[in-house]
C-alpha cells in the first residue's frame, strides 16, 4: 500500500532537491547515485530526471526496487523512501516532469527518462546530533555557522588548486 507523502516530507524534498538513490546491480551489489532533481509528483509518488544515469536505469529495468534518501542539510534530518520505480520516456509523465523541473530551475538540458517512484515505505532520518541540541532551530543555527566555515575552507582549497573539471 503506498504511503501518503506528508507536508513535512514535501518541505524536505523541496528544500534539498538532492537525493541519493540506491538500486541493485546485476551482480547483487548496491548502486548508490546522487540525483539533483528529486521532486514530489503527487501524494504517493516521487520522481527524478535521468540526466546521466545509465547504471540506475539499467538496474531499474531489471529490478524496479529503489530506495531514495533525502536530507535537508541544515536541519540534518530527512526521509528514506522505499518503493518501486517505472521509467518514462516520450510520454505524458516525461513531458510533465520536465516541465515541472525546468520551470523551477529556469534551465533546460537533455533528459533521457523520468523515474517515477511509488513510495511504499517512508522512514525518518535524523542526525544523532539531536541529542546535543534543544531542537531543530538550534540544529539549523549550529549548522549555518558550521556550514559557513566548511564553505570557506573549500573555497580556499579551490583557490589553491583551481576549480575541478569533469573528466574529458
Can you describe what's shown?
- The protein has a 7-stranded antiparallel beta sheet with strand order 2-1-5-6-7-4-3.
- Strand 1 (19-24) and strand 2 (30-35) form a beta hairpin.
- It folds into 2 domains: 7-126, Roll (Pnp Oxidase, Chain A); 129-161.
- With 168 residues, the chain is of the alpha+beta class.
- The radius of gyration is 18 Å and the shape is globular.
- It has helices at residues 7-16, 54-62, 92-105, 136-161, and strands spanning 19-24, 30-35, 39-40, 45-50, 65-72, 77-88, 113-126.
- It has 4 helices and 7 strands.
- The mean pLDDT is 97.
List descriptors.
alpha+beta, about 35% helix, Pnp Oxidase, Chain A, about 170 residues
The biggest beta sheet reads: 7 strands, antiparallel
C-alpha termini separation: 45 Å
- Per the CATH scheme, the topology name of the largest domain is Pnp Oxidase, Chain A
Give the proportion of residues in helices.
25-40%
How do the helices and strands follow one another from N- to C-terminus?
A: HEEEEHEEHEH
Strand content: 25-35%
**How many strands?**
7
Radius of gyration: 18 Å
CATH architecture of the largest domain: Roll
Number of helices, counting only DSSP H or I runs of 4 residues or more: 4
Unreliable runs: none
Spatial arrangement of strands, main beta sheet: 2-1-5-6-7-4-3
Structural class: alpha+beta
CATH class of the largest domain: Mainly Beta
CATH H-level superfamily of the largest domain:
Electron Transport, Fmn-binding Protein, Chain A
Quick one: overall form? globular
The count of domains is 2
